[in-house]
Design a protein that fits this description.
Helix content: 10-25%
CATH class of the largest domain: Alpha Beta
Shape: globular
CATH topology of the largest domain: Pseudouridine synthase
Number of helices: 6
Largest sheet: 10 strands, mixed
Strand content: 25-35%
CATH architecture of the largest domain: 2-Layer Sandwich
CATH superfamily of the largest domain: Pseudouridine synthase
Order of helices and strands: EEEEEHHEEEEEEHEHEEEEEEHEEHE
Number of domains: 3
Length: 373
């Protein structure tokens, strides 16, 4: 027989009494809290903190017929409807106890053991509206396009309270972003890396969401990026057709791999050369893999300036180069309006930091421009 699982009774929290304050406080000190945003010591803007969800508590008693086995194997099969990862995390955090003593994955459980299982709440972040300044370049009842600044996430990510495009657009649209994207990513049909600036489009209705997702999936939506790269390519253009997957040892990075599961194709063309030292490249990704342009340009020996993940710029040669971030800009996006089918092109010029580096490279090394026809 399967074990009976009963939610544990949670006693109501007792009230806490505070000693009244008798010292007078100057009115200037009593400033109202600002809920829109918080700024960390590092200067990164934070979203308002939400109350942490309580653990989901269960009481479990193993049946007499259960064979002794490791806790991770028994519990993963007993808690129906509960993901294995939540059970594993609860074990790792010491949230599962036997007779009041925490157990771990390797603990051997025996017949008739009684357990208290506290399951962590799912960690999928929920985006909330936050007032912030965003440059809207187009908006109607179906879609909204903005010029995303560098340093801003596209959507909330697990384990972080950093602000994102979604936070700001939920406020701007009064919550009218397509729910089909899910709680942390309403309206998000494509994304830009945190340090990448430029055009990004979000859907305001589910119909628009599914249409745009299909356009990006079918590769009918066309994207153009500008990148300032290390060293001038010998050729004036080409194509990188190389599969991408997780790096074999550094799992937070992507890499070109012969056994990579994800097809990735990037066309590129040189627009300016700054002597042999750097170049301005226009990239046309046909696919949309994570970090694709950064990985592909690094793979052919022309890492994007400022990209310290896929390039080597923390050396004396680059000490005075004004490249405060990955110098990649989403310059242009062409797609069909999800409601009317009308072709639309959104384009924004690179921001000040990008142009500053262009000017610096020109002054230091000279510039040679190539026809874009």
């Amino acid at each position: 027989m399967p074990p009976k699982i009963k939610p544990a009774h949670k006693p109501s929290p007792g009230s806490i009494k505070h000693k009244p304050q008798t010292r007078k406080v100057s009115p200037k000190v009593l400033r109202p809290a600002r809920e829109e945003k918080k700024i960390s010591r590092s200067g990164v803007k934070r979203a308002p903190t939400q109350p942490t969800a309580e653990h989901e508590i269960h009481k479990v008693k193993l049946e007499a017929e259960v064979s002794p086995a490791r806790a991770d194997k028994i519990l993963s099969g007993l808690l129906s409807g509960i993901s294995r990862s939540r059970v594993q995390k609860a074990l790792d955090l010491g949230l599962i106890t036997r007779d009041g003593v925490a157990i771990d994955r390797r603990t051997v459980l025996n017949p008739l053991d009684s357990l208290t299982v506290a399951l962590p709440a799912p960690e999928e972040p929920t985006a909330i509206a936050v007032k912030m300044s965003l440059e809207v370049i187009y908006e109607d009842a179906h879609i909204i396009a903005i010029n995303k600044p560098s340093g801003l996430l596209t959507h909330p990510v697990q384990g972080s309270d950093e602000l994102s495009v979604v936070h700001g657009l939920l406020h701007h649209t009064k919550g009218k972003l397509a729910p089909a994207g899910g709680a942390p990513r309403p309206g998000v049909v494509h994304r830009l890396d945190r340090e990448t600036s430029g055009v990004i489009v979000l859907a305001k209705t589910d119909k628009a969401y599914h249409n745009l997702v299909e356009q990006f999936g079918d590769r009918t939506a066309k994207k153009e990026y500008l990148a300032l790269v290390d060293k001038s390519p010998r050729l004036l253009g080409g194509q990188v057709n190389a599969n991408i997957d997780r790096h074999r040892t550094v799992r937070v990075r992507m890499a070109v791999r012969e056994d990579g599961r994800h097809e990735a194709i990037t066309d590129w063309r040189v627009e300016e050369k700054y002597g042999p030292h750097a170049a301005l490249i226009r990239a046309y990704p046909q696919t949309g893999r994570t970090h694709q342009i950064r990985v592909h340009l690094g793979h052919i020996g022309h890492s994007i300036l400022g990209d310290r993940t896929y390039g080597k710029f923390d050396v004396p040669t680059y000490d005075n180069w004004p490249m405060p971030r990955v110098m990649l800009h989403a310059h242009k996006l062409t797609l069909k309006h999800p409601q009317t089918g009308k072709p639309m092109t959104f384009s924004v010029e690179p921001p000040k930091d990008f142009k500053t580096l262009q000017t610096w490279l020109t002054n230091k090394f000279g510039v040679r421009a190539f026809s874009t026809v």
